[in-house]
Amino acid sequence: MVHMKAILLGAAMAAVAVTTIIALILALANRQTLDQPYSTQFGIVFDAGSSHTALFLYQWQGNKENNTGIVSQKQSCDVDGDGISSYVQNPAGAGESLKKCLDIAKAAIPTEQQKSTPVYLGATAGMRLLNLQNQTQSDSILAEVAKTIQTYPFDFRGARILTGMEEGAYGWITTNYLLESFIKHTFEGSWIHPKAGKIIGALDLGGASTQISFTPKDPVRDPNSAFNLQLYGYKYELYTYSYLCYGKDQALKKLQAYLHKNAGSSSSISHPCYHKGYNLNLTLAELYNSPCVVPPSSFNPKDTILFKGTGNSSLCLSLIENIVNLTGCALSPDCGFNGIYQPPVNGEFFAFSAYFYTFDFLGLTPKAPLTKVLSTIDTLCSKNWTALTAENPSIKPKYLKDYCASGHYITTILLKGYKFNNTWDQISFVKQVADTDIGWTLGYMLNLTNMIPSERSSAVTGVPHSQWAAEIFFIAFALFLTLLIIVILSVRDITK
Ligand SMILES: Nc1ncnc2c1ncn2[C@@H]1O[C@H](COP(=O)(O)OP(=O)(O)O)[C@@H](O)[C@H]1O
Ligand SMILES: [Ca+2]
Q1: Which residue's CA is minimally distant from atom 11 of ligand 1?
Q2: Backbone angles phi, psi at 357, to 5 degrees
Q3: Which residues form the active site (predicted)?
C-alpha cells in the first residue's frame, strides 16, 4: 500500500514538474516576439520659432527598442530665411519657405509610409507676439503653412501656436524621454522605473521667449505654473513658466530701446555690449517693431539711429540687470524674475537652444566652473570687432555681434533670476542626447501620437495573446494537478 502511494505521488509530481516547466518555458522563452521586424514608422514636426523654422524627422520601429528610448531623430532640416512670423507682408511666402525641407523629408520616407506619416507644425513666441499684435496676420500665415503642407502626401495634423506652458513642458518631456528618466531599458531586456530624483529640469532660451521647467521639491503654489502629468503610471507635478519677451533677441531689443530712451535726441548711441569698432544702424521702425518694447509717444519710424560698440563688459552687465527686473515678489521668497512665482530650483538641469549656442561659442559646454564662465565672457566683451571677426571667419556676424550680450544675459537670468547661484554646477549646456536634438518638438509629437502611455501596463514588453493563453492554461493545469493529487491522497488516507 505504501509502495503504491509512493508511485502515485512520484508520477503526480513528475506531471506537475513537466507542466510547470512547459509553462515556464512558454513564459520566458519568447520575449523575442517584440523583436520581429516591424516596419519603420516616421513622424515630422516643424519648429516654427521666432528666428527660424526647422523640420525634424523622427523614426521608430514598431515595438522594437533601441538603447536610448524608442523614437530617434532621423534628420533635421533648416528652413531658409527668417521665422514664419516675419512673413506678414507675404503670408504665402511662409508656406513656400517650407517646401525645400518637405521635399527632403519626402525623399527620406519610403513611398508606402508617407500617407501614414503625421506632420505637425508648432509655432512659438514669434507667432505668439504677432498674434497679440495682429491676429488676422498670424491666422493667415498659419493658413498658408497648412496649405503648403497639405500638398504633400503626409498625414497633416495641424499648424498652431503652442502656449508657453506647452513649450516648456514638451521640452522637459523630450529631455527626460531621451535620458530615459521615466522608464529605463535594462540589460536583461525589461523596463524599469529608474530611481526617483533622476528627473532633469529643462531650460530653453529662444529668441522671443524663454522657458524653465522642473519638478520642485514642494508642491507648486501657483496653479498657473503647475503642469500635472502621468507617464508610465507615475505622476509628476511640473513647475513650468515661459517668459514672453525674454528670449535672447527680444531681451537685447529691450536693451537697445532702453539705451535709445536714455540717449535723449542724440542719434548716435554708445552700446557697451557691442564690441569696439562694431556699428549698427537701425531705423526706429525696426527698433520698435515688437510689442516687447514701448516706443516713445511720438517718433518718426524712418529716423535712423547708430549704435556704437564700446565693449565695456561691466557696464553691459549692469544694463542687462536693469532689463531683467530682479526686485518685487508677490509669493516671496519664491520668485524667478519680473516678480514671477518660481519655487527653488531642484536637481540637475539641461540648458539648450540659445543657451547652448552661446556657451558653445564661448567654449563652455557642457559644463564650466562659474569663475571661468564669468572671465570668458569678460574677455570676449573686451575684444575689438576687427580682431573678433578675423578670429571667427565661419561665424555669422548676426550671431557673433551678440555673444557678449547674450553671455551676460544668460548668467544674469540663471544666477540672479532663477537663482542657480549656489547650484551652478547642476546645469549642463547641451544640444543633443543620443543624436536627437533637445527642444519641445519630440515631446510634442510623443504626446500627440500617444506614444507615452499614462499607465504602466502599456509599457513595452509583452507576449502575443496565444502564448499568454498557453501560459495561463499550463499554470492553471499544474495547480489543478497539484490539488487533485492532494485530494486523492487525502481520500485514500481517510478510506484506509
Ligand atoms: N549659431 C547660433 N548662435 C547663436 N544663437 C543662435 C544660433 N542659432 C540660433 N540661435 C539663437 O537661438 C534662438 C532660437 O530661438 P527660436 O527658437 O527661433 O525662438 P523662440 O523659441 O523664442 O520662438 C534665437 O535667439 C537665435 O538667434
Ligand atoms: Ca525655440
Answers
A1: 354
A2: -55, -45
A3: 167 (proton acceptor)
Same domain, 25 and 138: no
Q: Which of 41, 159, 36 is nearest to 108 (CA)?
A: 41
Find cell 551652478 and name the residue. Answer: 424
- Assess whether 78 and 138 both reside in one domain: yes
SS3 for 160?
A: strand
Residue 13 shares a structural domain with residue 78: no
Ligand 1 within 6 A of 51 CB? yes
Q: Is the pLDDT of residue 34 over 50?
A: no
Could you tell me the pTM of the whole model?
0.86
Contacting residues for 3 by C-beta, under 8 A, at least 6 apart = none
pLDDT at residue 4, as a whole number: 56
Residue 224 to residue 92: CA distance in whole angstroms? 36
Q: Tell me whether residue 270 is in a domain.
A: yes
Q: Give the closest residue (by CA) to ligand 1 atom 1.
A: 357
How many domains does the chain fold into? 3
Q: State the residue range of the domain holding 481.
A: 2-30+463-495
Cell numbers standing for residue 144:
498658408
Q: Is the CB of 357 under 6 A from ligand 1?
A: yes
Q: What is the pLDDT of residue 83?
A: 98
In a domain, 285, yes or no: yes
Residue 99: Cβ-neighbour burial (10 angstroms; 0-12, 13-18, 19+): middle
When the pLDDT of each residue in the chain is averaged and rounded to a whole number, the result is 90
Q: Is the ipTM of this complex over 0.95?
A: yes
The string of pLDDT tens digits covering residues 55-112 is 999 999 875 444 445 899 999 999 999 999 999 999 999 999 999 999 999 999 999 9
Distance CA 323, CA 29 (A): 64
Residue 479, pLDDT score: 74
156 within a domain of the structure (yes/no): yes
What is the 48 CA–ligand 1 centroid distance (Å)? Answer: 11
Do 316 and 408 meet the contact criterion of CB atoms below 8 Å apart?
yes
| Domain boundary pick from 110, 128, 161 | 161
Q: Is 50 part of a structural domain of the chain?
A: yes
Are the beta carbons of 134 and 88 closer than 8 angstroms?
yes
pLDDT of the residue at 467: 56
Tell which atom from ligand 1 comes closest to the C-alpha of 125: 23
For the annotated catalytic residues, the residue numbers are 167
Out of 268, 290, 316, pick the residue that ends a domain: 316
